[in-house]
Design a protein that fits this description.
single chain; about 150 residues; alpha+beta; Nuclear Transport Factor 2, Chain: A; 3 helices
Length: about 150
């Protein structure tokens, strides 16, 4: 089933609110991108549930000193209907620029999200963040001896 362009754009707006809140250290706005019973986690198994848990995640991951100057870039790859939600898969990168040291690529990864439409716009029901590097990226090419 095709996903309407309006839905894709509204989900893109949600992703923009999320990364803007993260990159500006706005914890209240970050938490507001989730449903009250939402969950954020990592592919490593960590889970933070409900607004209190999501606030704890934000305080631990976006608020610490040294994060100022971060900027997320994301690319939504797929949006698929899934029951009453939309499953969204995206790639992301985080760069950080400081006045003293210049810029650097800080991290890359993927997200798998369940998004739901509410009266106030789309919100995350679930967001799972994965890192992408030489140890975590799926790899099938066996010609070089790597597995």
């Amino acid at each position: 089933m095709a996903v309407p362009v309006e839905v894709r754009l509204a989900i893109n707006d949600l992703l923009m609110k999320y990364v803007w809140a993260s990159d500006t250290g706005d914890i209240a706005a970050f938490v507001d991108t989730f449903l009250p019973d939402g969950m954020i986690g990592r592919t490593s198994g960590e889970r933070y549930e409900g607004h209190a848990g999501i606030r704890r995640f934000a305080e631990q991951s976006i608020a610490p000193p040294g994060n100022r100057g971060r900027m997320h870039f994301f690319q939504t790859i797929s949006v698929e209907p899934e029951q009453d939600f939309y499953r969204v898969f995206s790639f992301w990168q985080v760069v950080q620029v400081t006045a003293a040291a210049g810029g650097r690529l800080r991290s890359t990864g993927t997200t798998s999200d369940l998004c739901v439409r509410t009266e106030g716009g789309f919100r995350f029901k679930q967001r799972i963040i994965g890192r992408w590097n030489d140890e975590t990226a799926p790899w099938k090419y066996a010609g070089s001896g790597e597995s």
